[in-house]
Design goal:
It is built from 9 helices and 8 strands. By secondary structure, it is α+β, with helices and mostly antiparallel strands. It has one domain (44-259): Alpha-Beta Complex (endopeptidase fold (from Nostoc punctiforme)). The strands form 2 sheets. It has a 6-stranded antiparallel β-sheet with strand order 6-5-4-3-7-8. It has a two-stranded antiparallel sheet with strand order 1-2. A hairpin with an 8-residue loop joins β1 (25-28) and β2 (37-40). α4 (130-142) crosses α7. The protein is globular and about 45 Å long.
């Protein structure tokens, strides 16, 4: 009994400490193999943290690449979403990617992306077969030239901040999901679904291929949300199944971190 009270006290104390950050949390109930456990959303993403650097030939069509670059825009997105990533890209296979950027949807070589970005990390959606990847590629290429969803990005910025109220520590996941959905319908209803920002484009490609990653509207999802859909993390927006980490194609520590190294 005393141990149970001690465990409860630890969870409550941790939850109180997390109120300042409003990180999404999840409580795993006790099992015969483990006790009560509080899991906190993690933004740690570096090869040294249980990951590895990989070559491009390790990728498969349909893999999702999350990136960051040392620019003011990228830093602003990462700061606003409390995340180390600011861009999402769809790998098409044969060394090609498709992405939605400020000039619209485009396809280009993967090598160009890796050269430009500070970090490129790959995740895989389990169960994507050759036919599904082909449907994604066909749809993605058909959208080349589509306009960038500028309004969607502008509406998404305050939504990302406001929805953190739904992610207060210890809020049950069902309540949090209902809160986020309701807020999204109110705040993002004016966003268009025939124009795309980066993560919206990736999710729409999966949706159009009949392999939706989440039941949420693609306009609700940021690159940060995709990152937290990985295995072992706590998602802000629920995924149909966790994304599997494949590896880092590139990782350059931020300048301040690099300066602290040996």
């Amino acid at each position: 009994m005393r141990a149970a009270f001690k465990t409860a006290a630890v969870v409550v104390a941790a939850g109180a400490a997390l109120l300042l950050t409003a990180c999404a949390t999840r409580i795993d109930l006790p099992t015969k193999d483990a006790g009560l456990r509080l899991r906190v959303q993690s933004s740690v993403i570096a090869p040294g943290n249980g990951g590895e650097l990989i070559a491009a030939d390790a990728l498969e069509p349909g893999d999702i690449l999350l990136t960051s670059i040392a620019t003011v825009n990228s830093f602003g997105i990462r700061l606003g979403t409390f995340s180390p990533v600011s861009h999402a890209v769809l790998y098409l296979g044969d060394g090609q990617i498709a992405e939605a950027v400020g000039t619209g949807v485009r396809a280009r070589p993967l090598a160009d992306l890796v050269d430009e970005e500070q970090m490129v990390v790959a995740f895989r959606v389990p169960g994507v077969d050759e036919a599904g990847a082909g449907r994604m590629r066909e749809w993605a290429l058909s959208q080349v030239g589509a306009r960038y969803n500028t309004m969607g990005v502008l509406l998404n910025a305050p939504f990302v901040l406001n929805r953190r109220l739904c992610e207060l520590p210890l809020v049950p996941s069902a309540v949090s999901s209902y809160c986020v959905s309701g807020m999204a319908m109110v705040q993002l209803g004016a966003s268009r679904d025939d124009q795309f920002f980066c993560s919206q484009f990736v999710l729409e490609a999966y949706k159009q291929a009949g392999l939706p990653i989440t039941s949420a509207d693609p306009r609700w999802v940021s690159p940060s949300d995709l990152l937290h859909m990985r295995e072992g993390d706590v998602p802000s927006i629920a995924a149909t199944q966790p994304l599997r980490y494949v590896g880092h194609l590139k990782y350059n520590p931020p300048p301040l971190l690099a300066a602290d190294g040996p």
